[in-house]
Specification:
There is one protein chain. This protein is of the alpha/beta class. It has a single domain (3-230), classed as Alpha-Beta Barrel (TIM Barrel), CATH 3.20.20. Helices cover 47% and strands 13% of the residues. The protein has 13 helices and eight strands. The protein has helices at residues 3-6, 26-38, 58-72, 87-96, 117-130, 141-144, 150-156, 172-181, 193-201, 216-227, 231-248, 255-263, 280-291; strands spanning 9-13, 43-46, 78-81, 104-108, 135-139, 162-167, 187-190, 206-209. An eight-stranded parallel sheet has the order 7-6-5-4-3-2-1-8. Strand 2, helix 3 and strand 3 form a beta-alpha-beta unit. Helix 10 (216-227) crosses helix 11 (231-248) and helix 12 packs across helix 13 (280-291). The longest helix has 18 residues, at 231-248. 47% of the residues are buried. The model has no long low-confidence stretch (mean pLDDT 97).
Length: 292
């Protein structure tokens, strides 16, 4: 499998819809998945951090994975998020979660612990040694407190079961360094919606997006234009969506995107503590944007 072709374009880090009692709303999840695929996204990412995975039980994770596979029904690839800051626990999840139908595993760098670069390398090596599916690294220092340096990423890329990275450092120069030094078959996708268009235009293979939950057609078209070297049309859409990026992350993720999706009639606007819905002033700005 050529992962750079299979996961080229727009992937979506799908939210986890909840009911008023904060149980998982599987009906809404199914509707959202259909909406995303019908709107042209290239693949689905289940149980990313946008899915509020720290608040989900293992049984809920298993149910969400299985429901996602059933609903997608092989229409597009599915990537499953499996990560954490306890290496042994993450190894156990890789061995016990239902990952047979997954195309790849997206695994966030360990958060809070702030390991050294050698610690990050050994963590990912331990996961890759046991994972039943190829692993995509996920560098998001704004959440983890530690940057996965390009040198460590390139070192990890030598492992046969580590096939790509979601780079969400919000550092354009670091992204370019990865593109220069990566192996030919190593996938590099953006994890920053506000930088995704220029990053793809510069050579990235696509994006794993939050914004594409709410604007799947527009975002997918923008990335496709960038992949096809049509920077003018890509930039036009990017400018139209730029206020969306600011509103999405004004307070926290996924409160922003859940507010958009609720206003679009796709899900109910519930999150699990410690996350709460957006404040009224930001919600009013989202309503005004959608009316415009």
């Amino acid at each position: 499998m050529n992962i750079r072709q299979t996961l080229r374009g727009t992937g979506v880090a799908v939210v986890t819809p909840f009911n008023q009692n904060h149980s998982v709303d599987f009906d809404a999840l199914g509707r959202l998945i259909d909406h995303l695929i019908d709107s042209g996204v290239n693949y689905i990412v289940s149980l990313g951090t946008t899915g509020e995975t720290p608040t989900l039980t293992k049984d809920e994770k298993i149910a969400i994975i299985n429901h996602t596979f059933d609903k997608v029904n092989n229409r597009v690839p599915v990537v499953v998020g499996v990560g954490g800051n306890n290496t042994l626990h993450t190894v156990e999840e890789l061995k016990t979660l239902p990952l047979e139908k997954a195309t790849a595993i997206l695994s966030t760098a360990p958060y809070y612990n702030k390991p050294s670069q050698e610690g990050l390398y050994q963590h990912y090596k331990a996961l890759a040694d046991v994972s039943p599916k190829p692993i995509l690294l996920y560098n998001v220092p704004g959440r983890t407190g530690k940057n996965l340096e390009p040198e460590t990423t390139i070192r990890l890329a030598q492992h046969p079961n580590i096939v790509g990275i979601k780079e969400a450092s919000n550092n354009f120069a670091q992204s370019i360094r990865l593109l220069i030094e990566r192996p030919e078959d190593f996938l590099v996708v953006s994890g920053d919606d506000d930088l995704a268009m220029p990053q793809v235009a510069a050579g990235m293979d696509g994006v794993i997006s939050v914004a594409a939950n709410a604007f799947p057609k527009e975002f997918s078209q923008m990335i496709q234009y960038a992949l096809n070297n049509n920077a003018k049309e890509a930039a036009k859409i990017n400018l139209q969506l730029f206020d969306v990026y600011l509103l999405l992350f004004a307070e926290n993720n996924p409160a922003g995107v859940k507010c958009f999706l609720n206003q679009q009639g796709l899900i109910q606007n519930y999150l699990r503590l410690p996350l709460v819905p957006l404040s009224q002033p930001i919600e009013e700005k989202i309503k005004a944007y959608l009316k415009k």
